[in-house]
Write a structure and sequence with these properties.
single chain; 180 residues; mainly alpha; 0% strand; elongated; transmembrane helix; transmembrane; membrane
Amino acid sequence: MDAANSPIKPFIRVFLFVTVLTMLFFAPTREFLKITFIMGIPGLLFYSLMGRQTRYSPLWIICGLLVLGVLLFYGYLLLHLPERIESREIISQGGTLVAEGKYDQAIDKYKQLEKLGQKAKMEDKISQARLEKSAQQQLEQARQKLAAGDKQGAREIIEKIPPGTRAASQARELRSQLKP
């Protein structure tokens, strides 16, 4: 039996297909492919334009410099890829913790961004988590006031809840209960 008609060959193709498909669920692979496609398209464009020019003509040199620039920028992006992946993971995990109401744990998670040199992003995410925590506390106070029968006090607290927070959407529902 020759190698081309081997009964194992279809299994190898299926294995490779499943492996590639599985890798797409892995964040580093997606980031690598994204960078490769984004930088590969202009690189191929400049390279193909370069191939149509007379060698060492001004346009050929410009295209060559552009190809070199794309390659250098691609290398730079790949060099910082692990840090970007790690920061996105931290932000994703912190966002999940905020959504679960674990604000202090999310703040601790966001503090890890400082080690990656992203202090501004860290401060922004921490301030968002603190705002969400404060809004949630205000919502709980409003619920307690409503349960105690103090509709006016609950209404005043609900009005102070910052818009754009998760608690603000819940406050709208609570506000509808306060309508006479």
